[in-house]
Amino acid sequence: MRVLVTGSRGQLGFDVMQELSSRGHEAIGCDLPELDITDGAAVMRLMKEVRPDAVIHCAAWTAVDAAEDEENREKVFAVNAEGTRNVAKAAAETGAKLLYLSTDYVFDGQGTTPWKADETHFAPLNVYGKSKLMGERAVRELAARHFIVRIAWVFGLHGKNFVRTMLSLSKTHPSLRVVNDQVGTPTYTPDLSRLLVDMIETDKYGTYHATNEGGYISWYDFACAIFEEAGVKVDVTPVTTEEYGLSKAARPFNSRLDKSKLVGNGFSPLPDWRDALHRYIKELSLADHS
Question: Is residue 176 within 8 Å of 166, Cβ to Cβ?
């Protein structure tokens, strides 16, 4: 299968490329500067030239706080909404399947009930969430053969993430404050990549939720597990989001995603997040010593 991956040098895109290649698929990556997805004509040209069987659309503006800045908002919507519309239109015109990565941020984050994949009560709290929801709507409108996969709390080797931030801060801070009233589950990019390639090898289209297994935790719980796994001694204090008070963007309290639709459609769930964290810290250690 020939698969085009947008955002191929990003945290997730890099691992998707690896997974595709390891399975013998022809993986064609594109990223800035060679392709700007906000340029609809350029997207269409590339799609007609490559003629992929499937597109895994990882390219996105993901800097959630920076998205709130007045000077960035137009760009955020250009990338996440219009850029996705361009990719969806080109996929439909060239007959390619489309897999779009979305986010728990399309919901309002209220309550404690896990969000189901087919929930339609959308009420994003911030610019990033609004832009990603517009991307979802473009995919549903334009690409009949689509997968929408909502993810949360992503970490991997090839980008910035919470685990790296915690480990970096631990080198200069003997104590840290971490919020304990935002609850969800981490998603490890190599595990997610395996699932995404599983998906595009089928025609089980629709909207799914995908994070690692192991139950729902707070960012505080995750931080404690990171330091325990890395063998780092740090005094971690749990605080409320209000007490923490540093984010520009409103964050959802409830990022619990119901993943039952995955198993219901025959897809293997991702491993336990603790197992994923163990593997990641080991990979980081190897990378640091290479």
Answer: yes
Residue 166 lies in a domain: no
Positions annotated as catalytic residues are: 128
pLDDT tens per residue across span 144-181: 999 999 999 999 999 999 999 999 999 999 999 999 99
CA distances from 202 to 38, 153, 206 (A): 29, 26, 11
**Contact call for residues 68 and 248 (beta carbons, < 8 A):** yes
Per-residue pLDDT tens over the stretch 201-225: 999 999 999 999 999 999 999 999 9
Distance CA 92, CA 84 (A): 12
In a domain, 112, yes or no: yes
What CATH number is associated with residue 262? 3.40.50.720
Residue 223 domain-assigned (yes or no): no
What domain count does the chain have?
A: 1
